[in-house]
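FAQ

Q: What does a record look like?
A: Structure on top, sequence underneath. For example:
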């Protein structure tokens, strides 16, 4: 494609490179080489000088442009203050991945962004370092080489063999077709077809003891849609049937519940005494049950009866366990 059809910033980088070569390019020579008009080059030079603070001057002796600052270089990316602050916050949020195999790769990307900025811009967020703190979630321990193997199979649509340790069971070998990767509450998961169970299952990378890349390739089913599959889940697990759940939160917890979106399907019904009833539709109760229990006596399940019965058994078990001490 001809140079004249390339984006403006590419043309600015071209002008910057020509000036840094110290051959004193002028509007005519730049326009001819880029295959554009002298007026376009002049607008670019004005933009560089007045909007990007480029130290450009014209030498009458050499009949061309030069930089008055020897080490000046146009930043490789055009960035505004709001963009820079967003990068700063994203860099802070990166802390939640520290200690995971993907952290080094992500940090490398941010380092490249920082290196592409001129010094006077790159150091700007330093004044804000004390304004924000990110507390990362508890993270699971995953072997770097295992993570790399799973990622490779996921990207190349290659079958994976794993030695897997399910909670409360002995390790067993599984062959899976990895369809989708998920990061959830400090753990990494891979969703895929399990050849042992002949269905789609979710596997935690932290519970994988060994991972081997096999030679067989697989084709992602056309009807696999992770968003649709996980639309009604509460957490990382899901089932086949939708379940209507209603939970009453007393006044002491109602404000905390109101201020968050806990599930896409949720509706809130305010109560005269300041309490509220949270209704949602899920397809698995395991993690929802744990979440309800975390609220203690402030949360009471109203529906469905099966969940109420499960919580009653759990409460009786806890009461018996602590009664013995």
């Amino acid at each position: 494609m001809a140079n004249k059809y390339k984006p403006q910033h590419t043309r600015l980088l071209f002008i910057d490179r020509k000036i840094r070569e110290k051959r004193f390019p002028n509007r005519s020579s730049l326009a001819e080489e880029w295959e554009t008009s002298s007026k376009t080059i002049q607008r670019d030079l004005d933009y560089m000088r007045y909007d990007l603070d480029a130290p450009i001057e014209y030498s009458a002796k050499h009949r061309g442009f030069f930089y008055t600052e020897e080490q000046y270089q146009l930043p490789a990316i055009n960035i505004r203050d709001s963009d820079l602050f967003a990068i700063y916050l994203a860099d802070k949020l990166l802390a939640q991945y520290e200690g995971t195999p993907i952290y080094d790769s992500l940090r490398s990307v941010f380092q490249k962004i920082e290196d592409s900025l001129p010094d006077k811009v790159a150091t700007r967020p330093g004044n804000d370092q004390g304004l924000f703190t990110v507390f990362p979630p508890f993270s699971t321990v995953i072997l770097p080489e295992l993570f790399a193997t799973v990622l490779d199979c996921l990207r190349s649509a290659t079958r994976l063999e794993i030695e897997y340790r399910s909670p409360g069971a002995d390790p067993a070998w599984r062959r899976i077709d990895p369809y989708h990767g998920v990061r959830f509450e400090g753990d990494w998961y891979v969703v895929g077809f399990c050849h042992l169970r002949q269905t789609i299952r979710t596997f935690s990378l932290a519970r994988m003891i060994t991972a081997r890349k096999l030679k067989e390739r697989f084709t992602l089913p056309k009807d696999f849609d992770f968003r649709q599959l996980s639309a009604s889940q509460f957490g990382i697990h899901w089932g086949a049937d939708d379940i209507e759940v209603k939970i009453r939160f007393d006044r002491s917890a109602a404000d905390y519940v109101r201020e968050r979106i806990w599930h896409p399907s949720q509706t809130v019904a305010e109560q005269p005494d300041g309490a509220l009833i949270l209704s949602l539709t899920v397809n698995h109760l395991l993690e929802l049950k744990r979440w309800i229990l975390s609220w203690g006596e402030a949360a009471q399940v109203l529906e469905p009866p099966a969940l109420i019965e499960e919580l009653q058994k759990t409460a009786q078990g806890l009461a018996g366990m602590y009664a013995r001490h």
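Q: Is there anything notable about this one?
A: Residues 1-5 have pLDDT under 50 and may be disordered.
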